[in-house]
Design a protein that fits this description.
The protein is α/β, with parallel strands linked by helices and about 170 residues long. It has helices spanning about 5-15, 20-35, 45-60, 70-75, 95-110, 125, 140-155, 160-165; strands spanning about 40, 65-70, 85-90, 110-115, 130-135. The protein starts with 5 loop residues before the first helix and ends in a 5-residue tail after the last helix.
Length: about 170
């Protein structure tokens, strides 16, 4: 890793893990609202970071999940997206053009928009129904381990989630 700073990664992981209650509350809100699709979209590396979580859903459950780049979503749309869908987006800067346009398109379709951003009070946060802010970078994936893990747990697909989540405090 370029400019690897172990102390910073450990501090980031501790801060993000400190958000566990808020992350689980977001997962519970998603579950309680109900949904017909868990849709992942963002640009470049942000979508690449979320792909394992869509894969986890596809291989561990029968929950409906899909993903595509924000640029593709803007051009083609997603025929499965409805006003009961949940759309996950992430952006380190919180102002990636295509990601913002995808968030707006999803909101206009009535979808519930959940974002993960590196900057508080970002344009992405403003377009989201729920935004989880991680600030200084890695391991922002920790948010999705807890968020998606909790959804799978609520669906009965991941009974080991409580122990898994307790052990995620060591991820950093």
């Amino acid at each position: 890793m370029v400019n690897f700073d172990e102390a910073q990664i450990l501090a980031n992981a501790q801060r993000i893990y400190g958000m566990r209650a808020a992350i689980e509350a977001a997962a519970d809100e998603i579950w309680n609202r109900g949904f017909d699709l868990l849709f992942f979209t963002s640009s470049g590396g942000s979508l690449a970071m979320m792909e394992p979580f869509r894969f986890w859903i596809d291989t561990a459950s029968r929950l409906p999940a899909a993903s595509m780049t924000a640029a593709d979503f803007l051009v083609t749309g997603c025929s499965h997206l409805t006003d009961r869908s949940v759309v996950f987006l992430t952006s380190k800067s919180g102002d990636t053009k295509e990601t913002l346009e995808a968030a707006a398109k999803a909101r206009n379709a009535g979808a519930w928009v959940v974002s993960v951003a590196g900057v508080p009070d970002s344009p992405l946060e403003q377009l989201s129904n729920r935004c989880l802010v991680y600030e200084n970078g890695r391991p922002q994936e920790l948010i999705f381990y807890l968020l998606i893990g909790r959804i799978l747990y609520k669906n009965g697909d991941f009974p080991a989630y409580p122990e898994f989540a307790d052990n995620m405090k060591h991820l950093g």
